[in-house]
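Suppose you are handed only these lines of text.
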Amino acid sequence: MAFTDEHSLRCRADFPALSHKPQGLDLAYLDGPGGSQVPRIVIDTMGDFYATCNVNTHGKFAPSQEVDRRMDLARAAVASFLGAESPACISFGQNMTTLNYALSAAIGRTLGKGDEILITQLDHEANRGPWLRLQEHGVVIQEVRLLGSGLLDLNDMAAKITSRTKVFAVGASSNALGTVNDIALARRLTDVVGALLVVDAVHYAPHFPLDVKTLGMDFLLCSGYKFYGPHVGVLYSKPGALDRLPTDRLSVQDPAAPHRIETGTLNHAAIDGLRAAVEYLAGWGSGATLRERIVDAMSAISAYEHGLAKFYHDAVRTLPGARVWGPDFSARSRAPTVSITLDGIGAGAAAEALGKEGICVWDGHFYAARAVGVLGLSERGGLLRTGVSMYSSRKDLERLLAGIVKLAS
Ligand SMILES: Cc1ncc(COP(=O)(O)O)c(C=O)c1O
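From them, the structure of the protein bound to pyridoxal-5'-phosphate can be written out as follows.
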C-alpha cells in the first residue's frame, strides 16, 4: 500500500492530542524523536485494562488469567513488529535506558580485564553510559569516530573491531542527525571476531520496518513511546542469548528468557497499550499475517515520512543563515529527522520562539551529547531538531519554515 497525504490527514483524527489546543494554539508536533502522540485505541486499551483486569499475573482467577492472556498477546505483537523468532525473545522494562543498564551489567560480569567494548561518538548516551560504566571493572572502551558529515567513520569502525572486542554497541539511527548506520556491516565485522552486537533501535523503530532475524543482532532495544505507544522499554534477545547471561534477578524469579531480565512487576497496562499501538500501525498495511501488515504499513509510512522530511530539508538549507547538519537525502536510508543551526540565534531561543507559535521542535543535544560535542556545537546551544511522524503534514513544515524565516529576519 501507499501512505499518502490523505492517509496522514485521516490518521490525525485518531490522535486526540492533535486536536487539543492549549491557549487556542493549533499545535504542530514535530518532536517525534523525543516521543510520539498516541492514538485513541492505545488510550482506550489502557483504560480498559485498569477498568477490567488491574491485578497481577499468574493468579488462579479470571482477571489475572486475562492479564496473562494480554501479556502473551503483547509479546507476540512486539515479536511481529521486530520480526523476532518468537515472543520469548521479547523482554519488557521501564524504558530503553534501564533495560540497557541491566543488559550491560549482566554482560559486564562475563568480561575480564582488558576486554574491549566498542561504542560510537554518534550514539545517544543511553547506549554509551551503561557501557562506559564497565570501565570500573577494567573493561576498555573504544569509540568509533563521527565524521563532520554526520556519518560514522567506517574505516575506524573496522579497525577497532579486533579479537579483543567483546561487544559492539551501536545505534541503528541517530536521534540527533537522522543518520542510519550500516548494521549489516557491523554484524559481519563482529561475527569475524565473535563479538556481541547490541543495537539501539529507539530512533529507527518508528521510521523503518525492522527485521531482527535478517540483521542477526544479538540484542536490540527500542522504546514504545517513540512509535505511538506508552512508556515501555523493549529488549529483543536472539534465542539463547539472554539465558546465558548472569542478570540481576531475584532467586524466586523465572530464570528463563524473556523473564530473566524483567525485575519486579511490569507496567502491564502500558504493555497492553503497546500491543494496541503495534496493531494500530499494522492497520495501515495489508497482508495475511500481522507481520505482513506491519512490514507493509511501516514501509509505506517510511516513504511518506522520508518525502516530508526531504521537502523540509531541501527548503531549509536554502534559507540564509541556516545550516543543516547530518547526512543529505541522496540516500534513501536516512531517518526523517533534520537538525539545523541558525546564524545569530541559538537553538534554545529559536525553539522557544517557535513554541510560542505552537510549533513543537526540540533544541540542544537530546542526550546525543558526544555527537553534538564532536561537531563543535555544545557551546552554541546545540541543534534545532525537527522530526517527522506519520501524522505530520506539509502544512506543519510550512508553518515551521515560515517561523524560521521570521526568526532569521
Ligand atoms: C536513539 C535513542 N536511544 C535511546 C533513548 C533512550 O530511550 P528511553 O527514553 O526509552 O530510555 C532515546 C531517547 O530519546 C533515543 O532517542
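What can we learn from it? The domain at 5-38+291-408 is CATH 3.90.1150.10 (Aspartate Aminotransferase, domain 1). Residues 33, 95-97, 124, 126-127, 171, 175, 200, 202-203, 223, 233 surround pyridoxal-5'-phosphate (CB under 6 Å).
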